[in-house]
Amino acid sequence: MTSRWSFPVRIAAALAAAGCAVLLDAPAAAAHSVLVSSSPAADASLATAPAEAVLEFNEPVENRFTELAVLGPDGTSHWEAGPASVVDARVSAPLRPLGPAGAYTIRYRVTSADGHPVSGTVAFRLTVAGPGAAVPAAAAVTRPDGDGPVPLWPWLTGGAVLLGTGFAVARRLSRADA
């Protein structure tokens, strides 16, 4: 008994099936990095300003795309004195002398070892005003590393186009044989 599918059609179908298997069998993403501790500690009340902001994560984070900002009580003034430094699971940034007493916020964004961005905030309170003066957001230190990791949608779109092309070729080859 002869097969109703020709050899090229079977090859194209096998390649399409293999492509689907590769796309569907992608490894599961590992857990994202989690903030374990900070200095100053979350919700701490301090009489003197810290010299640096330090964040400790449960696993090493990528050095790329790291952002760490310390915002003053007005929510817009920046108090970091330099770019964030990443050493394994520790992210830190030096601080200028803090100014007015009130609530300060450490805002961070890091990239986990699995490539996913993790962001959050840590609040602390300065109870005694310091000698520092606010710096506007435009003058704050930033890292020009880029916008973030590559999104997933181009990979999915490319896979769908490849799969659709495989099926179109298989169908055209099967009609040519008929």
Observed structural traits:
178 residues; alpha+beta; Immunoglobulin-like; 2 helices; transmembrane; CopC/D; copper; metal-binding; membrane
Amino-to-carboxy terminus distance:
17 Å
Task: Give the overall form.
Answer: rod-shaped
For the sheet with most strands, the description reads:
4 strands, antiparallel
Summing up helix and strand content along with how strands pair, one would put the structural category as: alpha+beta
Please report the total strand number as a whole number.
Answer: 8
CATH architectural grouping of the largest domain: Sandwich
CATH topology of the largest domain: Immunoglobulin-like
Low-confidence stretches: 139-148
Which strand order does the major sheet show? 1-3-6-5
CATH class of the largest domain: Mainly Beta
Helix content: 10-25%
Number of helices: 2
> What's the helix-strand series?
HEEEEEEEEH
Q: What's the rounded overall pLDDT mean?
A: 81
Radius of gyration: 26 Å
Beta-strand fraction estimate: 25-35%
How many distinct folded domains? 2
